[in-house]
Amino acid sequence: MTKRTKAILDKLDEVYTREYKCYLDHETPWQLLIATMLSAQCTDARVNIVTKELFKKYDTVEKFANADLKELEQDIKPTGFYHNKAKNIISCTNTLMEKYNGEVPDSLEDLTALAGVGRKTANVIRGNIFNQPSIVVDTHVKRISKRLGLTKEDDPEKVEFELMKVLPKDHWILYNIQIITFGRQICFARGPKCEECFLTDYCLEYKEKNKKKKIKK
DNA sequence: CTCCCGATAT
DNA sequence: ATATCAGGAG
């Protein structure tokens, strides 16, 4: 790990010390799996509103596996992409019943083989449920890792592999939740609050912004 | 690369 | 009007 990377991680640790919680409400592994599937291109706040009722109505994996497609679509509609998500949830939970005795598997291969589960969702499960070091590359991690110059890649899988090289393994899971928190509070996609940011010394975009200002003056 | 897609902020 | 939100599949 370079000095620069360590300085960034130290700053993050300083501000987001024990903010280690998952923002998707869940009580079981399969609930987190479904909540994460629903979170694609949707705010976690909305996912939590939907799952609050959803997990009362479907309180077992088996109930999801036997759900009526059209009815489930309506139940999850506010999260968007509801045709695909409903179909995937039914297919995925059927696989859980048939191949895994209704449990959620822990390997990346088994998880990504499930319908509607890609590397991002699989890594959320591995990190949060099984405590396996894993890098979750979502929209926040990708955007902010680029701004901080930790990667130049655009493809989420390449970002994941590069961050695995750059970040110490014992910081992988923590990095995810820190960056998501940072992205929600300060480093927005649109109009980031650079005045309140504690990482401007390491931000490539901030550097660019100041260059342009100086030229104008 | 395109499509899936509703809700909210700007 | 448009960008963005804890992405994934064909």
UniProtKB/TrEMBL annotation:
Which molecular function GO terms apply here? 4 iron, 4 sulfur cluster binding; class I DNA-(apurinic or apyrimidinic site) endonuclease activity; DNA binding; DNA N-glycosylase activity; metal ion binding
Look up keyword DNA repair and say if it applies: yes
Q: Identify the EC number(s).
A: 4.2.99.18
Q: From what superkingdom does this record's organism come?
A: Bacteria
Tell me which Gene Ontology terms the entry assigns under biological process: base-excision repair, AP site formation
Q: Report the co-factor binding details.
A: Binds 1 [4Fe-4S] cluster.
**The HhH-GPD domain, residue ranges:** 38-185
Designated name of the protein: Endonuclease III
- Native organism taxonomy: Bacteria, Bacillati, Bacillota, Clostridia, Lachnospirales
